[in-house]
Write a structure and sequence with these properties.
The protein is mainly alpha-helical and 123 residues long. Helices cover 46% and strands 3% of the residues. The chain has two domains: 61 residues, Helicase, Ruva Protein, domain 3; 44 residues, Ribosomal protein S13/S18, C-terminal domain (30s ribosomal protein s13, domain 2), CATH 4.10.910. A two-stranded antiparallel sheet has the order 1-2. The radius of gyration is 22 Å and the shape is elongated.
Length: 123
């Protein structure tokens, strides 16, 4: 089993797709990594140890992935929240950050509906 940057890659998938399981590597970056490491497209189970090592070296040398990237992103968000910029305030209030509408939709970010007000009884 290939283990790169602390992530077990699925054995039955092609290498370019399997590399996207690593946080911080998408399809475009995975193609670039394979070119730089001189690894042909094949399934993960068919990779040799040298090919895995060369992929690991390219990732360590040129990309920020997994824990370091998560830490960097969290620090950046925390900094936005501390300086009270618009995006930071949106993060604090758990609202959409990138300009989406909130009058309707935005349920993923806001959570389930909370009904405001009370029901009046007939007297």
């Amino acid at each position: 089993m290939a283990r790169i940057s602390g992530v077990d890659l699925p054995r039955e998938k092609r290498v370019d797709i399997a590399l996207t399981y690593i946080y911080g590597i998408g399809k475009h970056n995975s193609g670039d990594i394979l070119k730089k490491a001189n690894v042909p497209l094949k399934k993960v189970k068919d990779l040799t140890n040298e090919e895995i090592k060369s992929i690991e070296d390219v990732i360590k040398r040129e990309y920020v992935v997994e824990g370091d990237l998560r830490k960097t992103v969290n620090v950046n968000i925390r900094k936005l929240m501390e300086i009270n910029c618009y995006r930071g305030i949106r993060h604090k209030r758990n609202l959409p950050v990138r300009g989406q509408r909130t009058r309707t939709n935005a349920r993923t970010r806001k959570g389930p509906k909370k009904t405001v007000g009370s029901v009046r009884k007939n007297e």
